[in-house]
Backbone:
């Protein structure tokens, strides 16, 4: 069976007006993952969402990897949901997002306050009662992510379909985000939305989830592996 590695981006700028930017730690986390990948089979193809944090994670991964560098194939289907929209629809105070972030950051427990607000906003988005409020509802987000994964699988299997004795790509890396990975795990395992929200909370930055696929099967080999971080020290393990 062939393998797809879903790679969550490195630590970004959580609680800042522009989240879509790796922190220095996020860049180093990505390099640590790349260095660890030197002992693994070289990826035949690399896909990624088109967000800046996806691009920066891949760039730093390749710095650490120092091996062959397949061309990156952009696929917006692997982008994260719009967290600004999710917050804004939950509470109109977030419409002036930069101002609200600055105001929140003045609080002594800013990170906890932002996380609490974000969790409530996500629950509203996923709940289903307000789907029409969103440009991209939760069901639409799930459909987009699943379609993107199927696109990659179809492309990987194409040579096999045309030439039954031909070899198709064995290892594919996809640089993406936590929400996307959680939805794909939900799809494969048939999880509830509630369990999917719990998965989102557990994903570490640059954690790797390995999928196995063939013409007839799609399964999870392992989930949220971040051993490359624990080997470097517990301080490198982050959630946001």
Residues:
């Amino acid at each position: 069976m062939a393998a797809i590695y879903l790679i969550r981006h490195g630590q970004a700028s959580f609680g800042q007006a522009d989240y879509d930017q790796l922190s220095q730690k996020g860049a180093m986390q990505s390099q640590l993952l790349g260095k660890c990948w030197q002992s693994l089979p070289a990826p035949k193809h690399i896909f990624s969402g088109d967000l800046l944090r996806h691009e920066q994670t891949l760039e730093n991964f390749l710095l650490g990897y120092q091996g062959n560098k397949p061309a990156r194939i952009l696929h917006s289907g692997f982008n994260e949901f719009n967290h600004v929209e999710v917050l804004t629809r939950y509470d109109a105070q977030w419409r002036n997002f930069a101002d609200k972030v600055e105001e929140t950051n003045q609080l002594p427990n800013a990170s906890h306050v932002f996380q609490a607000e974000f969790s409530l906003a996500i629950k509203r988005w996923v709940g289903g009662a307000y789907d029409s409020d969103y440009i991209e509802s939760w069901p639409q987000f799930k459909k987009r992510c699943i379609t993107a994964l199927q696109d990659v699988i179809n492309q990987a299997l194409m040579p096999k379909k045309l030439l039954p004795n031909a070899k198709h790509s064995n290892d594919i890396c996809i640089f993406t985000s936590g929400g996307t990975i959680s939805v794909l795990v939900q799809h494969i395992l048939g999880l509830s939305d509630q369990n999917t929200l719990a998965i989102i909370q557990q994903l570490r930055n640059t954690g790797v989830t390995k999928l196995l696929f063939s013409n007839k099967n799609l399964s999870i080999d392992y989930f949220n592996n971040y051993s490359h971080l624990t080997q470097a020290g517990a301080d490198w393990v982050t959630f946001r």
Residues 2-80+139-236 form a domain with the Rossmann fold fold (CATH 3.40.50.1240). The chain is about 45% helix and 15% strand.
